[in-house]
Here is the input.
Amino acid sequence: MDYQTIESVIDDHVQLITLNRPERYNTFSLEMAGEIMDALDHADVNEEVRAVVITGRGRIFCAGAELNDGKESFRFRRLSEGMDESTFRDPGGVLALRLFECRKPVIGAINGPAMGVGATFPLAMDVRIASEQAKFGFVFTRRGIVMESCSSWFLPRIVGISRALEWCMSGRTVLSEEAVESGLVRSVHPPEQVVGEALRIAREMTAHTSPVSVALTRQMLWRMMGASHPAAAHEIESKGIFCLGKSDDAREGAAAFFEKREPRFSSSLAEDMPSYYPWWNTSGEGEGE
Here is the structure.
């Protein structure tokens, strides 16, 4: 697809999505949100793609939401018209939920400053690495609004409630050193190495692993964060062990171990997902109340 605000290419089984509005500091727009979600849709169904990396073009990852004359956010100007608080849905949150639903690992290569929605939508990614020049701003209280992109759910789970409260109530800037110390990002790298390191991590996570096992593991770990009791994890893990234990991938994994070679998995996300997936759509298992 010919995108206008992003670029999407496949590089050795990794789909690299690049926010591509450097002249506008990669500001987040409705069009960008839609194009990122479209690229994720294609990644999920393309068996050639094993992981996704998201980065920004130029010096800045994402400077936040696109503004109208420096005053009015796009979300209120274009989305809230004719709606009320029961029907309006934050577009950053729609994107974060789409990231949450991905069947492939998603790695964020934060190449520069990430402000507002630019800091919050990457929270739904599995791993984030950052440039030495990156900084993060959960600046919503300084703009007279509140956090979005489901960040009130994601951020405390990543950095802890006290730090999340401090950052979001003050709206202060978080530099890369504090970001890595807090666990917001995995590691910090020179700007020219960020994308390469993200691609390396993506391939490390997928090169010798079963696609079905990775997809299930991703959803199990994320969704169990909302479970009220470990019995929910036990139930889903038991189903997984029972179903996958009889699979061709399980046989290949065992054979590769005994033969001291890398496994050659053949499972397909389109054909070989177990019958209980997606379990949360029918039973609510593993979901918080």
In short: Residues 79 and 89 are 8 Å apart (CA to CA).
